[in-house]
Amino acid sequence: AADKIRLIPQDFFAELCEQIIQHLNHKIPGINTAGLCQRIQTSGVDINIGDLAKIANTLSFLFSTAARNNLSTEELITTLGSGVSTLPKHALQVIRHVWNEQGKAIALSEDAGSMATVGQFVDMKWKLGVAMSSDACRSLKYPYVTVTLTVAEPSGQITDKSFEMTIPQFKNFFRQFKEMASVLETV
């Protein structure tokens, strides 16, 4: 991870660290690695989303472990500086600053060690489509609904999950959502 961190400009690395701290403090549902990766690539840095996700997971583990052990800024930086593959200077400066400013908030949160074991719903998009024809059938005229759910995984990564439904399946899906809404109104 240290080799890939060297590639990331300091401002983007700082933004990634800020998002991780906010996620650990339960202020945001997850870390938008896809959006950040695209912006880093646009700036001319050759990094893929898998590598950025690994860096985000490593930093998340680092910050949550430091919070669990109630490390001071100096203890954290000393520990990081003595590692086998040391981090670049700009990364240590960012980690020092972020931990100094917001690290104690993680330690003070109700339970820094417990993370959700299921994803958190962030957004839902849907669209109606019609399959006009295929290789096997000239005239389908088959309507369907495509649903894309945006979910923050327990690791903090934001991912999209897509699926298609027939109109009867979508009507059943909609009915279940109405039932949930009516139950929630009674709570």
Automatic annotation (TrEMBL):
InterPro entries: COMM (IPR017920), COMMD4/6/7/8 (IPR047155). Signal peptide: none annotated. GO terms for molecular function: NF-kappaB binding. It holds the Pfam family COMM_domain. Residues 120-187 form the COMM domain. Belongs to the COMM domain-containing protein 6 family. Scaffold protein in the commander complex that is essential for endosomal recycling of transmembrane cargos; the commander complex is composed of the CCC subcomplex and the retriever subcomplex. May modulate activity of cullin-RING E3 ubiquitin ligase (CRL) complexes. Down-regulates activation of NF-kappa-B. Inhibits TNF-induced NFKB1 activation. This is COMM domain-containing protein 6. It comes from Pomatorhinus ruficollis (streak-breasted scimitar babbler). The gene is Commd6.
